[in-house]
């Protein structure tokens, strides 16, 4: 009955409009005792005689209303003395009230009323604080309850393949007792069979005891059916009954492969972390100064680390030694409904497709709760992702985290990520170069079919692994920060809106062909980004060759059976350099097909022309194009170039790949693009950031930051035989191509002080 009473008490404390976002803007100060403003209610001496009388009634009866007495406002000295005495004695007797009256020049009745009002206000504030705590506890219990209900409802019998609970379970105590008795009988029969056929005695003490109601999820209970195929509930710290061992995943034909991951920590702990992270995200998204300090003009917001430490307590451990903190916040209007964005963020594949240049790999390890219906309220899942910046000088951040979705009202959602340690290793090993503090977004539907998205990114990383050229970019937040997430989100959804009314120049292409072409370009850009960041999606082997500089990353891999690229040995080379020109100037030059012969060695100096292009967003340069070299001596070429370009406030991309003319014709006619073999090369431009002074928004058109960072990357087939050996000459040839390309760009733009990395 203890659980029932507790639940009833929690429900009685819930407010009528439960769904509203209550924690936003509600900053309770636990030190409110004695800290009262001068104009608070208890700071006045109100003679309630006459004020609470039947003035309205007497007026209705024709008699003149009684004259109300005027309020008397205490002065600061009187309030200070009363507060000091209240701290010592909140219930003064008649003698003490007379003494205060004499000392402060107030009537004894005024002293009495002041203390009554003061006690009432303290009681109200204490109850409000208690309500906040009870609401948080109630949310936790609801999340745990949803988790258990979904786990039980989705249980599948490993032997017969049918639901372990065929009908809807009644949660009445009498029904639970009957179900418990039935499960005990089944356990006894299973124990008898074990003793008979396996020659092994399974005592009742070795079986998994049923957790007491007071234990809840803290008893480390987890649903074994989703990981072992055994119907029922089991304590995660004990071995499976009946002597079965599924340590290597054997004899598990009915198990979903996504649940083969064994979660070493109990679900209750994850629910606690998720709720605490959600509370911190909401406050981080809503609080202003002094937590967030605004830069000059249009400057970026900077997190006040001292204020953050005073406001929040760490629930994932202390910051590892040598780690640096980066924290950013950005808000923008996005042309989509909130629930559509929620669905995208809660799906690992769609999330990675939405941010292809930021996420090189994403996978859902386990779904602990799928949430309530289509709203995804209380959805909780374990995930792993690799985050990247398009530069070989910045290592990939591999992070394991939980993602929690909460619907706070009919039009407000919040999704939060926070790193967790899913292994028994020490924190130093688990968080090799980064850990993700509560980060995510608050999504609010607006009336104009737009959504306001407030994004918060907060992480700690090992700065010693970052090249000095890229450190200002990362510390400013333009590497992994909220500004980059928001810029990419807006560009992607503007692209989707643009594709509904495509602006196609050049040769005619139908809708199916357009989609096939864009899908091919998407794969090209994704493979280029994965090659720059050395993602684990493609198993690259890093090479160390004597004649190749430290700032150049050279990798190789063998393609044996992927028909999406040429078969054989693929070599990748990439580097990043400082360019003392603006991002917009460099982007316009590299995307211009008429100037391509000034830097593209493979074009043999021939001018290029665009056959057609499909716009992917507003402004010039956001498009997918097919380029063709001009005919030489009346002979046409059979080789075309597929190119995608885009630019936003946080960077730009120019990626291209040579394609066979016959293959691209098939794609333009709506054919399958997955078998078109291509190897991408191209450029990524990152904004330059000042190393000193206030944090400013870099301007891609003006030279406010004195330059930008150019990343050059090539992927080239050096041998069509996968079993062949890679030669040093091949590596030096690709390295020479990289160096010559940078020098040609420098010469074409008359850049006399090209900043090479040191």
TrEMBL record:
Q: Which GO terms describe its molecular function?
A: DNA binding; DNA-binding transcription factor activity, RNA polymerase II-specific; lipid binding
- Disordered as annotated region, ranges: 44-73
Q: Looking at the record's lineage, which domain of life comes first?
A: Eukaryota
- Record-annotated Homeobox domain positions: 65-125
The entry sums up its family as follows: Belongs to the HD-ZIP homeobox family. Class IV subfamily.
Q: Does the keyword Transcription regulation apply?
A: yes
User: Coiled-coil annotation: which residues?
Assistant: 119-151
Which protein is depicted? Homeobox-leucine zipper protein ANTHOCYANINLESS 2-like
DNA-binding region residues: the ranges are 67-126
Question: Which key words are in the record?
Answer: Coiled coil, DNA-binding, Homeobox, Nucleus, Transcription, Transcription regulation
Biased composition (Basic residues) is annotated at 64-73
List each copy of the START domain by range: 263-498
Location in the cell? Nucleus
Give the organism, scientific name. Answer: Gossypium stocksii
Q: List cellular component terms (GO).
A: nucleus
